[in-house]
Amino acid sequence: MQFLCKEYQDGNPRVRGLVTDTRIHLVPSLNPDGYELAHEAGSELGNWALGHWTEEGFDLFENFPDLASALWAAEERRLVPHQFPNHHIPIPEHYLSEDAAVAVETRAVMAWMDKNPFVLGANLQGGEKLVSFPFNTARPSPPTPAAAPRPLDYEDEHPELQETPDHAVFRWLAISYASAHLTMTETFRGGCHTQDVTDAMGIVQGAKWHPRAGTMNDFSYLHTNCLELSIYLGCDKFPHESELQQEWENNKESLLTFMEQIHRGIKGVVTDQQGEPIANATIVVGGINHNVRTASGGDYWRILNPGEYRVSARAEGYNPSVKTCHVLYDIGATQCNFVLSRSNWKRIREIMAMNGNRPIRRVVPGRPMTPRERLRLRMRL
User: Fold this and answer.
1) Is 281 a residue whose pLDDT tops 90?
2) How many angstroms separate the CA atoms of 229 and 177, rounded?
3) Alpha helices in the chain, H assignment, sequence order
4) Rounded mean pLDDT of 334-339?
5) 31-141+163-262: in CATH 3.40.630.10
6) What pLDDT was estimated at residue 374?
7) Which CATH number fits domain 266-344: 1.10.820.10, 3.50.50.60, 3.40.50.720, 2.60.40.1120?
């Protein structure tokens, strides 16, 4: 925060452009309880894990609704996307009840996410030195038929790795941070003394490394427009004062580069023919089975890798509009605006409901109707 303010005042063109063109939200501490507990333990004991827990005993990162399992269950029943959405999945009712085992910090963060149309996010943690991206939940393997023989190395619980529809985008975002970090891509893991699970790239999908359900990253991806990643900065929760400057230098370029990725992909406004913005319109990118919605002002942002995309905008009561949008390698989102015309689908649905949602038989010109058909038509009219 100090760096952005000082460099902005000093006229740094890169920082000025970032601050002027980007709505930046910074949260110094999501869990002050855990921070205090870890601080009392001290850095020499390596008790960074205490920082994950609140005073009430919640690990905030894993305290969110498990929407991924709900999505996969709906997919197996073939309910997606017509009856169950592939985006903005609602929070389960039982999770919102007052007696639910949900931390007050978690409730506050979920309300904050619903209030602001975030597009890109990162939560900074301790415990390793890598960047983790969704899915963090491992998808259960389909049940084995009773008649099918089990392999010799069969395990009762053998979850499969499920990639998000935005897997390539998540990898790009993770690499943008890890590759700019001064030490994250080194095979020597430093203070953690653990095996390198990233193949010297500094990035890993959460489910491959440490599978867990109900994480902040999965919730953010499935409930909002935001692509959220976890950045693990090392095992020493409280470096000595003499080490702080080097820690800042290790991460400074990574933080700037990561924030700049928000301006990669497409952006635009969805309006009607009178120029009025359309909120909650759905933006569908061909080939990526995960949609986003427009904000209250009809604006949207969609992070995409370079390439050519077939993009459509859809909204209740309007005819859809389709465009081809090109995303370049240079930083700077491609403008893709949509103007939607009103449709008569609302009236058609009303007529269908009056007819018991049964198909209305089309009358073929020139063919005489039977008395029964004529009676049915008169009753409908």
Assistant:
1) yes
2) 10
3) 2-9, 13-21, 32-41, 67-76, 93-96, 104-115, 167-178, 206-209, 216-223, 241-260, 345-354, 371-380
4) 97
5) yes
6) 82
7) 2.60.40.1120
